[in-house]
Specification:
It comes from Ptilorrhoa leucosticta. The protein is an all-alpha fold. The protein contains 3 helices and no strands. Helix 1 (about 15-75) packs antiparallel against helix 2 and helix 2 (about 85-115) crosses helix 3.
């Protein structure tokens, strides 16, 4: 037996300095892997928070949309003076344009999140998103 060279079964092969260098390399690799894992977990948590915020915003916009359409269908209440039909229609068109632009921006953001490999939505919401994206692609 000489020079630090021994058989296989868990016995060392190489000098103590080589083994120490190998161990240091393994420790550094392990530390880097842990750092990357923590970074991924932090990024995923941030994406989940953003996803939750966007879901809440989506719900709010849907409620607002329903309310606006209900108002448009029912007309002004008894305490509100009726606006000129042309003015009201123009205001509704402007409001519709703003809502459509918000909707397009939200869909673009969802596309970017999906392309970046963000957390997947649940089955129903994912199908709904696919339907919305398909509708938007079909529009001019």
């Amino acid at each position: 037996e000489g020079g630090g060279r021994q058989g296989w079964r868990g016995e060392s092969r190489g000098s103590p300095q080589q083994l120490a260098e190998r161990y240091a390399d393994l420790a550094a690799s392990h530390s880097e892997a842990l750092r990357q894992r923590e970074e991924r977990e932090w990024h995923n948590a941030r994406l989940r928070q953003e996803n939750a915020r966007l879901r809440l915003e989506n719900r709010r916009l849907r409620r607002e949309n329903r309310c606006l359409f209900r108002q448009a269908l029912l007309g002004p209440g008894p305490d509100k003076p009726s606006a000129e039909p042309g003015e009201e229609a123009e205001a509704l068109r402007a409001q519709l344009g703003r809502l459509q632009e918000k909707h397009r921006r939200a869909l673009r953001h969802l596309r970017r999140c999906r392309a970046a490999g963000g957390p997947e939505a649940s089955g129903a919401e994912d199908g709904e998103l696919d339907e919305l994206l398909l509708e938007e692609d079909e529009q001019p």
